[in-house]
Amino acid sequence: MPKGYIYILECADGSYHTGSTIDIEKRIAEHNDGKGANHTKKRLPVVLKYIEEFQRIDDAFYREKQIQGWSRAKKEALINKQLRELKNLAEYKNDSHYKLWLRLRSATEKRLRSATEKQSIKTYQSNGKLLITGEYVVLDGAKSLAIPTKYGQSLKVEEYNSNSLTWKSYDEKGNVWFENSFTLENGEILKTIGNDNDISSRLVQILETAQQLNPNFLKTQKGYKASTHLDFNREWGLGTSSTLINNIAQWANVDAYKLLEKTFGGSGYDIACAQHNTPITFQLQNQKNNPLAESVQFNPSFKDSLYFVYLNEKQNSREGIKRYKTLNKVTTSVISEINGITEAIVRSVSLSAFEELIIKHEQIIGELINETPIKYRLFNDYNGTIKSLGAWGGDFVLATSETNPTDYFKSKGFDTIIPYNDMVL
């Protein structure tokens, strides 16, 4: 019969658990992994407080049952080796037994330190975005179809003892494209330690706006190491700014739509994509422009015939919006027509019907902004339909084709062609 051990664990809530085992190290690890008794599973982590060794496991089992019937005070007397207060206590048999206890205690403390460190590191994730319908007119209350992408951005924040905030931003290849440090005093960002450039100023603006929305944000007496990690090329226009806004909003525990409104502006559909893992319809409601995002079942049977093509030029959406507002050609009938197209696209069951809808949509938006649809400007000989996404003239377009169109677009100088299933979340 194998040797046995009894042990006493102190749980996270201060209670004690007594058990027996033939492999003490393995058993303690199992408890902290949530694989032990029901009592410890709900009170992790646990710390080893006492062990005894026996030549036979059945003796250890008997001892376990004896101790389980003791009062808390009696167990603590055993743990503290107050031998005069107890009778028939088994002392540590030898020096190797004591060393085992020390080793187990050290391992438990290391596990606790690791758990504490993990708790001080927070990670936030947001999805990228594509606006399939309603570009520009979404600002005037049109219902739009928007799709979150598999490409997104994460924010990792770690507390540390310093009066500063250090920031690093990594691109999709793991290279740092921005870094700077800022001094903190009582949560206020006093000055930039590194280069005071436009990106630094914009970042400070976002953080200070988050503080306006939540005065407790950054008010701890600690410093922070923050890093952002992109899954996509910054030039693609999939939401470098909106994913950052949504991640900072999560960190600061504020409304991401309000943070966007007070910093970059826009309709907010990109924030909705950042927060959803399914296609959505998005609409600004009533005079207060309250955002309404609803998940929809848009999983077209013809999705293998849909491709996203990057036009090699980062588009400034703010300039496009400014031009759209200056022209001021939108009407309630136009909004109603776009709403109908959006709803029909969500329901579309054939590629041909889908193509007819996006051709009609391109014509409507082209008239509103005095622009020729992208197909007629760049791809007049393309055997399929093409639709602009978001601001016209840059970023991605949506192309339909029953065969892979990669060779065609590469012949035109456009090398980034992503199939629907590889892009859409």
What does this entry look like structurally?
With 425 residues, the protein is α+β, with helices and mostly antiparallel strands. 38% of the residues lie in helices and 25% in strands. It contains 15 helices and 15 strands. The strands form three sheets. Strands 4, 5, 6, 7, 8, 9, 10 and 11 form an eight-stranded mixed beta sheet that branches. α6 runs parallel beside α7, α7 crosses α9 and α11 packs antiparallel against α12. The radius of gyration is 31 Å and the shape is elongated. The two termini are 57 Å apart.
List the helices and strands and how they pair.
Elements (H helix, E strand, L loop, with lengths): L3 E7 L5 E6 L2 H9 L5 H4 L5 E8 L2 H12 L3 H8 L15 H25 L1 E11 L12 E17 L3 E7 L5 E10 L2 E5 L5 H16 L9 E8 L9 H13 L3 H6 L7 H7 L4 E6 L4 E6 L10 E5 L6 H11 L4 H16 L3 H19 L4 H5 L7 E3 L7 E5 L5 H6 L5 E3 H4 L2
Parallel strand pairs: 6-9
Antiparallel strand pairs: 1-2, 1-3, 4-5, 5-9, 5-10, 6-7, 7-8, 10-11, 12-14, 12-15, 13-14
